[in-house]
Amino acid sequence: MALVERIQAAVARTETLPFRVEIATEAQMDGVIQLRAASYGKHLPELGAKLREAEAADFELGCEVLVATSKLDGSVLGTLRTHANVVAPLPLEASMTLPEKFDDTLMVETTRLCIKGSSQGSLVRSALFKALHQYCMEQGVNWMLAAGRKPVDKIYDWLLFSDVTEKSMFFPMQHAGMVPHRVMYFSPQEANALWLTHQHPLHSFVFETVHPDIDLSKARPLAITPEYSTLFSPAIEPVAAAFNRAQ
After folding, report:
1. Which listed site, 105, 129, 192, 225, has its alpha carbon 20 to 30 Å from 185?
2. How confident is the model at residue 9 (pLDDT cuts 50, 70, 90)?
3. Number of other residues whose CB lies within 10 A of the CB of residue 157
């Protein structure tokens, strides 16, 4: 551990949350599905109707469903799903071609971000993002990507994501009912310095506070294993090889 990280760990404070953030269990998926259908149904009725059942990606290798559940009653307060490009291209790559800088890198796309409307919605979203960042750091991810429709894209602006192409350009997304989305990226390794420089309000929450209620111990490793290798397509093999070299 680097000196700066050791110092940060020593001065970090511990804070409990009124909810838990973890990898969703099979029993929690019903609540996840209900929240997705309700959230997307408000703005995209057709997509919301399709989300009344679990999606194949919820169980695929390279994907994880993160869920925030209330300590009081176990209800689902928020969720998101990660997609890593270790087995298949990212969902957004079905709708656009990423610039060359992303070639042969390990990427994770965030999809199906849903937060239940409540007084603690902002805290739930912040905790989910901290969990996402922690997941990417633990897995050695080079880039975090997200596609956000208006006005959701402003969340990623606030987090200091950058547009993958021209600023504020939108692309119709096949996995989001062909609704135009901004495609944005972020370096998990640079988050600490970037947010500190900009005095971002999430810096202390993410880097200076220990949250025992965020537990990603059940996340599956993204390392390339024989189990994964049988599923590779030719397009993904360079990514797998580059990832293995970095380990």
Report:
1. 225
2. low
3. 16
What is the chain's alpha carbon radius of gyration, rounded to the nearest angstrom? 18
Buried b / exposed e along 54-68 (16+ C-beta atoms within 10 A): ebebbeeebbbbbbb
4 backbone φψ class: left, alpha, beta (φ>0; ψ -120 to 50): alpha
Which helix (H) or strand (E) segment is 229 a member of? helix 226-229
pLDDT of 11 reads 58
Polymer length in residues for the chain: 247
Distance CA 196, CA 4 (A): 13
- Which residue from 135, 116, 137, 129 is spatially nearest to 201, judged by alpha carbons? 129
CA angle, 59 then 63 then 69, to 5°: 80
DSSP β-ladder status, 214-215 and 76-84: unpaired
Q: What DSSP designation does 68 have?
A: E
Count other C-beta atoms under 10 Å from residue 179's C-beta: 15
How many alpha carbons fall within 13 Å on the CB side of residue 2?
Answer: 3
Q: What is the dihedral of CA 195, 200, 201, 205, to 10 degrees?
A: 0
Asked if residue 18 lies in contact with residue 211, where contact means CB atoms within 8 angstroms, the answer is: no
Strands 13-14 and 170-172 come out as unpaired
pLDDT, residue 45, reads 77
pTM of the model: 0.85
